[in-house]
Amino acid sequence: MGGWAIAVHGGAGVDPNLPDERQQQAKQLLTRCLNIGISALRSSLPAIDVVELVVRELESDPLFNSGRGSALTANGTVEMEASIMDGDGRRCGAVSGISTVKNPISLARLVMDKSPHSYLGFSGAEEFAKQQGVEMVDNEYFITEDNVGMLKLAKEANTILFDYRIPLTGLDSCAASVESPIHMNGLPINIYAPETVGCVVVDRQGRCAAGTSTGGLMNKMTGRIGDSPVIGAGTYAGELCGVSCTGEGEAIIRGTLARDVAAVMEYKELGLQDAVNFVIKKRLDKGFAGLIAVSNKGEVAFGFNCNGMFRGCATEDGFMDVGIW
Predict the structure, then answer these.
(1) Which helix (H) or strand (E) holds 150?
(2) Using an 8 Å Cβ cutoff, are 196 and 65 in contact?
(3) Cβ distance 150 to 114 under 8 Å?
């Protein structure tokens, strides 16, 4: 085995005019999360535990679109979703429609470990959370001033915003402008800047794990489910690799993006980075997304086909990098 490796992301599709201050805040958060993961891996914590630990940290910080600071639905509420997968046995857990669980990734872990199912949603997931005694909070805990402002903007524009991290002024400078919108399921989406969070880890025993968490789209329809909780789309881990995706959820679902990385490694015998490049190029059609991945050999890779992706990675040999563009 090639030693442990870890990668984190805070979303793909970045406003090219994102202020330097916001860029530095994002890099500091990613660095903090990487250091938490590195410390845990040096203490021989299993990959699945490290993934949960790091994603919980991302969910607890309002900077990105997960946990506290999640995007708001059209009704002004938060409906979060998350999934986690252990490559050792391909065990998995996922949740959707979460509105009062402080850390959705931990509830997904409990679905994996403590239920006979792989996926629970909405009231059933919330009831299971109460039974398991996880930390619950009022929905207002997740709502920030930025969220409220961006929901108002989205409603005024009669559109969906992938995330609230878009300046309240100068919308024509965003990653996808009004003059050249991207499309989601054939419908134009004027603003593109998703910021789902995720973590992938391989430990010293070569065990891979992955986790993804998000608040979804700003001004989304109540009940909408994206790729983040869908095993094989937003999250996948097996014997060969662990993958977490971010971006246009509908395109990621159509392309079963995370699973395809593992599939081309297995069936085409591609290396990790070549597999990531193949999937980003061949499986997204006209969609926009990015992903992070680790292999059981201790390799780390990423790819995206949009303006940028908030990301960071580290390996046991001392390599560490945090970037956006």
Answers:
(1) helix 145-157
(2) yes
(3) no
Contact 264, 275 (CB under 8 A): yes
- Stated pTM of the model: 0.90
**pLDDT at position 191, please?**
41
DSSP, res 251: H
Share of the chain above pLDDT 90, in %: 75
Distance CA 232, CA 286 (A): 19
Using CA atoms, how far apart are residues 265 and 35, in angstroms rounded to an integer? 29
Of 73, 196, 235, 246, catalytic = 196
Q: Could you report how far apart the first and last alpha carbons of the chain are, in Å?
A: 30
Rounded Cα distance between 163 and 194, Å, is 5
CB neighbour list of residue 154: distance below 8 Å, 6 or more residues apart: 160, 161, 218, 219
Q: Are 10 and 197 in contact (CB under 8 A)?
A: yes
Q: Is the distance from CB of 92 to CB of 112 less than 8 angstroms?
A: yes
Distance CA 163, CA 64 (A): 9
Q: CA–CA separation, 290 vs 11, rounded Å?
A: 8
- Helices 104-114 and 47-60 meet at what angle, rounded to 10? 150
Question: Would you call 246 a catalytic residue per the annotation?
Answer: no
